[in-house]
Structure formats: structure tokens, C-alpha cells
Write a structure and sequence with these properties.
Elements lengths: L10 H10 L1 H17 L7 E10 L7 E3 H27 L5 H31 L4 E3 L6 E5 L4 E13 L5 E7 L8 H12 L4 E5 L6 H9 L2 E4 L7 H4 L9 E3 L4 E3 L5 E10 L2 E7 L9 H4 L7 E4 L2 H12 L4 H20 L9 H24 L1 H9 L1
Parallel strand pairs: 1-7, 7-8
Antiparallel strand pairs: 1-5, 2-3, 4-5, 5-6, 9-10, 10-11, 11-12, 12-13
Helix pairs in contact: 2-11, 3-4, 5-6
Length: about 375
């Protein structure tokens, strides 16, 4: 800085540049990955996909859902009731302080009733919102659960696909949806295009598991590695889970833990998924009936494309280190980015501008990774050419 006499652009100059050049900043971030690809850095075509919830410029008190509005209205109403009781007691008192005390209580009650009116108006806003949620400071920010702390924050969900070889972020996207179940194929396709490959291995955690997403990945040349979450209510209550029943493809039947055949009965459509139902007529006479079901017979439903998920399960069994690779690949980028961002994370508002801010951070991260991997002078020479 001494060479320039501490001459530096004003913060407003930087802010204006960032605001006016959002598309160009995102394009440079993407083009840098193209440069890395031209330098031959992506030889394995394996990425780890993960996400992290990032705080927006929106306090939790400035975010409203239907449940939150109802809770606040109840709190305000409880306060009104309490002040009304105090007002009744003040009216019965005959001291000098009774009258001014009653006046103060009436003012408080009036203010609280104004709050009730404001909350009723807010409740209508929430009802009319597409996702029944309203944020006042950053209208695009959403309340999201954070698995690690069991709490929630108001912010965005940053999705990244990280190269497992050099830990470069090859694709990213900022969304305001709090779960990852519909993001696997989208992020895998972005990573595949960024790497310029015909086939790609994508590793993700169980939060990304969704049968339709895995099938979509198969159709675009992406081999997915996603563990299936154990969500069986029966298993949690000590009964047999679906994984205890073996599907025999050639016979199109399920074999239960005691060896009985559950045969195909009918087909139904639930949540746009075609499901085949199987059960056995011998369930009621089974010695393990109570350990299997609380109904007359144990029914198993099978998605019409379940074979795609089963193939992926066997693929994961043959690659037990996949989840370890995922963890050691994605934890470093997220840890670094959050350290740079500080406790408030995003500084800009709305999904568009937050996306630009994210691209700046990721470009800086990838530049630092390339400097440590490739060297300063070789990188400058590559950029010039």
C-alpha cells in the first residue's frame, strides 16, 4: 500500500461495481473453471455435492411464517390480558398513584392492540405469499432449519459441486429452498457441463436422496453415489423395515424374513409416482406377525423405477470410501468461505445480488487454490494466454 500512498477505491465504488456487473462477475467465475479445465486439472471427473445454510441480511424477528405470526399474536394477547387484570386492580385502589398507573396501563394496552392489528395484516401477507413466508429486510431470504444445531436461520442455501482432486468449486448455485432433495441432478448437470465430460461420478449425502433425481442423473450420464436414509417408522419402533424384505426380480415378488412370498397385488399413483403393492395372504398365521405389522398383513410398496436405486445401493457397497471422500472434499471450501464472510455471511440482499456476492467469494477461493496448486507465475501466464 505504501507504493500507492494508501490509494484505494472507496467502499461505494466497490459496491457500485459489484451491483452493476453481476452477470460479468458470474461469467468470470465460470470462465475460470474453463481455464482450469484447459490446464488439464480435471482428470478424474468426480465431484462431491453438498450445501450449507448461509445467513442473510434479515433478522429472525423480521421473518414471518403462519406459525410464527400466531405465536406472536398469542404473546401479545397474553400481555393485553395481564395488563387488563392490572388495570382492574388499579381501578379498585383509592391511592394517589392509582390514576396515573391506570393511564400508563391504558397506553400499553392501546399499543399492544395496535400490534395485534399489524400482526393480523402480516398474517394476510403470509397467507398470500407463494411459500407462506415473508421476510421484511431481504424479501428473498427464507427461514431454514440447520441440522447441526437443531435451530434455524434466515438466509439462503448455497449448493456447490467440488472437484475431489484439487478441491476446486466447479459449480455453484444459491437457492432459497431449505432442503436438498431436488438439487442432485441440477448440480450434477452443472458440474458435468463445467468439466466438459461425457460421464461424471457425483457423491452426495443422504439429504440429496430422491428416486426421481437419481433416475434423472442416470439419464444424463451421471453416476450418483447417495446413501439411502433409513426413514422406516416400523424399524424405529422395533419391527421389520422394508430393507429386511428381499426383492426377487425374476419372480416379481418380495421374500419376507421368514421366507414367505409377497406377491404383486395392484398399482397406484402417489405424489406422481407409480407404485406397485405386494403382500402375502399368510401373514395372520405367521409367528412373527406382531414383529412385522400392526395390520392384517404387511404391505410393501415398490416404485416402478426402484431398480435404479437398488443398483446405486450396490454401487455404494462396492465403494465404502465414497462418504469419506465427500466429507474431506466439501468441508474445506465451506469452512474457508464462512471464515471469509464472517458471522453475518451475506452482505447483499435479494437472490440475484446474493448470487453475485457468492460468485465473488468462490472466484477468490478458486484463485487461492490454483495459486497453491499451480503457482503464481504459471497461473498468470495461463491467464494471459
Amino acid at each position: 500500500m505504501w507504493l500507492t500512498g494508501r490509494l484505494a477505491p472507496d467502499f461505494k465504488t466497490i459496491a457500485n461495481f459489484r451491483q452493476a456487473n453481476g452477470p460479468a462477475i458470474r461469467a468470470v467465475c465460470s470462465q475460470f473453471i474453463v481455464l482450469c479445465r484447459q490446464l488439464g486439472l480435471f482428470t478424474r471427473a468426480v465431484v462431491a455435492i453438498d450445501s450449507s445454510k448461509m445467513k442473510a441480511v434479515n433478522n429472525r424477528d423480521k421473518n414471518f411464517t403462519a406459525a410464527k405470526v400466531q405465536s406472536r399474536m398469542k404473546q401479545v394477547q397474553d400481555n393485553i390480558d395481564r395488563y387488563l387484570e392490572e388495570l382492574d386492580r388499579a381501578d379498585r385502589e383509592e391511592s394517589d398513584i392509582a390514576e396515573p398507573k391506570a393511564a400508563r396501563l391504558k397506553e400499553k394496552i392501546a399499543r399492544l392492540r395496535d400490534q395485534i392489528c399489524a400482526l393480523e395484516a402480516r398474517e394476510e401477507e403470509v397467507r398470500l405469499a407463494p411459500d407462506q413466508q415473508v421476510s421484511l429486510t431481504d424479501p428473498d431470504a427464507r427461514a431454514m432449519a440447520t441440522a447441526g444445531r437443531g435451530t434455524s436461520l434466515v438466509g439462503y442455501n448455497l449448493q456447490v459441486a467440488v472437484d475431489t482432486q484439487h478441491h476446486l468449486i466447479v459449480a455453484h448455485e444459491v437457492i432459497n429452498i431449505g432442503n436438498d432433495r431436488g438439487q442432485l441432478s441440477t448440480m450434477a448437470a452443472k458440474a458435468k457441463d463445467a468439466l466438459g465430460v461425457e460421464a461424471l461420478d457425483a457423491i452426495a449425502d443422504k439429504g440429496y436422496f430422491k428416486g426421481e433425481e437419481i433416475r434423472t442423473c442416470e439419464g444424463i450420464g451421471v453416476t450418483a453415489f447417495v446413501p439411502r436414509p433409513l426413514t422406516s417408522g416400523a424399524k424405529a419402533r422395533g419391527r421389520f423395515g422394508k430393507q429386511d424384505f428381499v426383492y426377487l426380480e425374476q419372480e416379481d415378488v418380495y421374500r419376507c424374513p421368514v421366507g414367505e412370498r409377497l406377491i404383486y397385488r395392484f398399482t397406484s399413483v402417489e405424489a406422481d409416482m407409480t407404485l406397485h403393492s405386494y403382500w402375502s395372504s399368510n401373514c395372520q398365521a405367521c409367528a412373527l406377525h406382531d414383529q412385522c405389522t400392526t395390520g392384517k398383513e404387511r404391505r410393501i410398496k415398490r416404485w416402478e423405477h426402484e431398480a435404479v436405486v437398488e443398483v446405486m445401493g450396490r454401487r455404494l457397497d462396492r465403494r465404502p470410501d465414497a462418504m469419506r471422500i465427500r466429507r474431506q472434499t466439501v468441508e474445506h471450501p465451506f469452512g474457508t468461505l464462512k471464515t471469509w464472510m464472517g458471522s453475518t455471511h451475506f452482505l447483499m440482499k435479494t437472490l440475484k445480488h446474493v448470487g453475485t456476492e457468492t460468485s465473488l467469494h468462490i472466484l477468490a477461493y478458486n484463485l487461492k487454490r490454483m495459486i497453491s496448486t499451480f503457482g503464481v507465475q504459471p497461473l498468470i501466464a495461463a491467464i494471459k494466454t
